[in-house]
């Protein structure tokens, strides 16, 4: 399974108002492991950068003056991500900008060349409702060192997001290992080995444990005016 953890920086907040990409970065995961392969490029947007955006990422028009245009890197970028599953924080933002840039060149858009997109912002909100879900907040929650992140930067943010995503989805490694294991064979006369399974051990509650359980249910019923879903209903007196 090939995944690309992707991030971008832009001249502003809305491509519909003419804002453009200025930085693209992606790091590669193969079977949930960082391969060390990555893509990173700065892009000359051919327009001014909003002061608010510069305050966030620190990238200036002067710095980008000698950088390539998006049309010069579009093919290389598309080749790097093609066919992968994308992992993006607040995916609608980055996908919107990339689709706009590719579309202006008449090239297949990002959502056409990559089959799936995982939005880690949405995933974080589903896993921890009501909690902060910014990249910095997630780094703190999963104890990922981001002290070197003083400004936003696409490559650094993609690397941090890769660590965050792997932490958010722990447990999938064991599932993948199970999928890779050969299925048990039965002795069907064709050389398959019979798999002996040990009998299951059944542990039953002791009288003391049952009494403690009934006591807790009684306390629940008392606190809820006699209602407790786990207790049998009182018998109805016959007329």
Architecture overview:
The protein is an alpha/beta fold and 239 residues long. The protein folds into two domains: 2-170, 2-Layer Sandwich (Nucleotidyltransferase, domain 5); 201-228. The protein is built from ten helices and five strands. The chain has helices at 51-57, 61-64, 70-81, 91-104, 110-113, 120-127, 135-141, 154-168, 172-180, 207-223, and strands at 2-10, 21-30, 33-42, 85-88, 116-119. Strands 3-2-1-4-5 form a five-stranded mixed sheet. The longest helix is centred in the last third of the chain and has 17 residues, at 207-223. The termini are far apart. The model has no long low-confidence stretch (mean pLDDT 87).
Radius of gyration: 27 Å
Find the count of extended strands (DSSP E, 2+ residues).
Answer: 5
Give the count of structural domains: 2
**First CA to last CA: what distance?**
69 Å
Cross-sheet strand order for the largest sheet: 3-2-1-4-5
* Mean pLDDT figure: 87
Approximate strand percentage: 15-25%
At the first level of CATH, what is the class of the largest domain?
Alpha Beta
In CATH, the architecture of the largest domain is 2-Layer Sandwich
Secondary structure elements and pairings:
Blueprint: E1 2-10, E2 21-30, E3 33-42, H1 51-57, H2 61-64, H3 70-81, E4 85-88, H4 91-104, H5 110-113, E5 116-119, H6 120-127, H7 135-141, H8 154-168, H9 172-180, H10 207-223
Parallel strand pairs: 1-4, 4-5
Antiparallel strand pairs: 1-2, 2-3
């Amino acid at each position: 399974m090939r995944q690309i953890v992707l991030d971008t920086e832009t001249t502003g907040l809305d491509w519909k108002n003419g804002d453009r990409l200025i930085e693209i970065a992606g790091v590669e995961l193969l079977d949930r492991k960082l391969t060390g392969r990555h893509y990173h490029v700065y892009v000359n947007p051919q327009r001014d950068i909003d002061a608010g955006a510069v305050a966030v990422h620190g990238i200036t028009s002067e710095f980008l003056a000698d950088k390539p245009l998006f049309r010069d890197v579009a093919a290389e970028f598309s080749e790097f991500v093609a066919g992968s599953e994308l992992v993006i924080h607040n995916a609608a933002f980055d996908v919107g900008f990339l689709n706009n840039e590719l579309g202006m060149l008449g090239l297949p858009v990002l959502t056409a060349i990559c089959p799936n997109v995982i939005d880690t912002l949405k995933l974080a909100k589903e896993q921890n409702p009501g909690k902060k879900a910014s990249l910095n907040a997630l780094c703190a929650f999963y104890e990922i060192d981001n002290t070197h992140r003083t400004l936003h930067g696409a490559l650094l943010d993609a690397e941090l997001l890769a660590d965050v995503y792997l932490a958010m989805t722990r447990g999938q490694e064991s599932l993948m290992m199970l999928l890779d294991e050969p299925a048990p064979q039965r002795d069907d006369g064709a050389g398959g080995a019979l798999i002996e399974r040990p009998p299951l051990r059944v542990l039953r509650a002791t009288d003391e444990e049952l009494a403690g359980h009934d006591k807790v249910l009684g306390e629940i019923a008392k606190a809820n005016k006699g209602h407790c879903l786990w207790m049998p209903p009182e018998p109805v007196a016959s007329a």
